[in-house]
Structures are given as C-alpha cells and as structure tokens.
C-alpha cells in the first residue's frame, strides 16, 4: 500500500486534510460540498436533478460560441504537442490580448510527450531547458548537464493545464487542419502569404477518400504557427502542403538521430518559413533536413519559446 501522503504535502497541493472519518482518511476538497457530508450517508445520497437536454445545451452552446469567437483569431497554432503547447504557454503569458486557437487532430492533446521514450516514463531535458520547467513549475531531478522529470505526463499535463487556463486560448481537439487559407503575397511575386486554416473533424479528414466530400470549416488569422511533428497520420502537415502548393520546392527530409546536432538546429531554425507561417518543433526537421534527437525534449520546449518570440515580432510590427 502506498505510504500516505504527508499532511504538509497535501496542504501544499491545496487540499486541507480533515480528521479521519470512521478510520478512513479524507481530504476536504475546496468546493460547495465537502466529501465529509457524504461519508456513511450514501443511502440518502443523490445528485441534483438534470434533464439530458441541459447537458447537451451546456456543451453545444459553449462550443458554437467558441467557434464563432475564434472564427477570426490572431494566431492559430496547429498541433498541441510539446512544441505547440510550449508556444501557446509563452504567448498566453505575453499577450493576453491576443485570441489564440489551437487545432489538434487527436482527441488527446500532448503529441509524443506523454512518455520519455520507448514507453519509458521519465523525460529528459538538456540544460538550459530546465529554465522552462522552472517557469512552468514542473519539478525535476538535476543531473548536471541535463534534468529529468519523473514522468513525461507530469510535464505535459502541467503544461496543458496552464495553457487551457488562459482565457484567450481555445483548444479545438479532434479537429484537423486539412488545408491553409492563402492570400496573394504583398510582394506581387506570385507567391502567397498564409491567412488562416481550413479545418474539419479529424475523422472526416481521414475519410475524404471513401466518403463524399464533406466541406470544411475555416479560421481566419494573420499568423499560423505549425508544430505538427515529424510523424503520425498528419506529420509535418503544413510544410508538406507548402510543397504541394509550390511555395517551397521540396522537403529536406529528417536526418538520422544526433541529439547534440538536432536540438540546437531545431531551436535556432524555428522561424517564419513563408509569410504568415511560423514552423517549430519536429516539423522543422522535415523542411530543413535536420537530424532527429530522439528521447530528449528540451528543443521542443525552447523551439516553442522561439516560435512565440517570432510571433510577437509579427504583432509588434
Ligand atoms: O509531439 P508532436 O508530434 O510534435 P512536436 O514537434 O511538438 O514534438 C515532437 C516530439 O514529440 C518528438 O518527436 C521527440 C522529441 N522525438 C524526436 C525524435 O527524434 O523522434 O505533436 C504534433 C501534434 C500531434 O498531437 C498531432 O496530432 C498534431 O500535432 N497534428 C495536427 N493537428 C491538427 N491538424 C493537423 N494537420 C495535424 N498534424 C499533426
């Protein structure tokens, strides 16, 4: 049986330990009713009454209000992996006035950052990425030139919870970006600038070939930040789309694993690749032919910091 969590730990987590009830330790959760009110009174327990339509309306009213609000966004982040979420965290802190939509194809955001590597739970970040963990409030073990978070899910869940708590950021998960909105480039050179994204339910996007076309939705935004990773069903989506719309000639293709080379390159090369589109994280390895770094995540966090910095330059102009 796991040792009981020490009282001081519970209170530091915001729980107020209460007296044991019938020998069962209970913590008093902040809220209208305490758990104490329920123990040993289950026979008279009942939830407040509800009608199913109230649940449906509570969800749909808010969702469609969000779709309306974010139909015109300031920034769209494509992909809620470690880089996309790190970008959102930095932007959410720096610019609470900007409307930021995050579009994530999977039901579960977080990308590849729920495990440290090959199903192992500890997550390694090389210094100076420990500065990001400290800013985020994620504890880690210091191993000299690198740090270790005891479980990757602790990093990702903390980052996700902080991002979702920003009032100016909305996550649309289970939703895929299936194209980019473009406008003629201001330079009149026949190229384009990116002006938003085309979205659909991910399941619809995955079945355009075997279902009649189900038209998409759109989000207008002067800036898109793509962090769609290098693998997965939609990996490197936006850079591949740039090739298919002849905005870049070809992809460099991700190179073999070399941690020292890969992480520096990814952070340094995070940038606006075409007007209106910043690319960060492992999607960059596909466009630049950068090496992969494997199971170390410092570059994802700091590429997110750099992507946010590049985005702020656009809004400062
Ligand atoms: O975690 P990923 O795949 O991408 P990053 O760049 O945030 O982090 C990469 C990192 O996990 C690694 O690959 C590590 C460091 N290993 C490196 C190596 O050498 O193997 O997250 C991308 C997210 C995912 O959640 C996808 O579901 C999502 O982007 N996504 C999309 N969401 C919406 N529309 C799309 N078209 C789309 N494509 C991908």
From TrEMBL:
Give the free-text PTM comment from the record. Answer: During the catalytic reaction, a sulfide is transferred from Cys-213 to a reaction intermediate, generating a dehydroalanine residue.
Q: Which GO terms describe its biological process?
A: thiamine biosynthetic process; thiazole biosynthetic process
Task: Enumerate the cofactors the protein uses.
Answer: Fe cation
Q: Which reaction does it catalyse?
A: [ADP-thiazole synthase]-L-cysteine + glycine + NAD(+) = [ADP-thiazole synthase]-dehydroalanine + ADP-5-ethyl-4-methylthiazole-2-carboxylate + nicotinamide + 3 H2O + 2 H(+)
Q: Which GO terms describe its cellular component?
A: cytosol; nucleus
Q: Which GO terms describe its molecular function?
A: cysteine-dependent adenosine diphosphate thiazole synthase activity; iron ion binding
Annotated positions of the 2,3-didehydroalanine (Cys) modification: 213
Its subcellular locations are: Cytoplasm; Nucleus
Q: Which domain of life is it from?
A: Eukaryota
EC supergroup of this enzyme: transferase
**E.C. number:** 2.4.2.60
Its signal peptide is none
Q: Where does substrate bind?
A: 83, 104-105, 112, 177, 215, 230, 282, 292-294
Free-text comment on the cofactor: Binds 1 Fe cation per subunit.
Subunit and interaction comment: Homooctamer.
Provide the family line.
Answer: Belongs to the THI4 family.
Q: Which HAMAP family match?
A: THI4 (MF_03158)
Spell out the protein name for this chain. Answer: Thiamine thiazole synthase
Source organism of this protein record: Alectoria fallacina
Gene name of the record: THI4
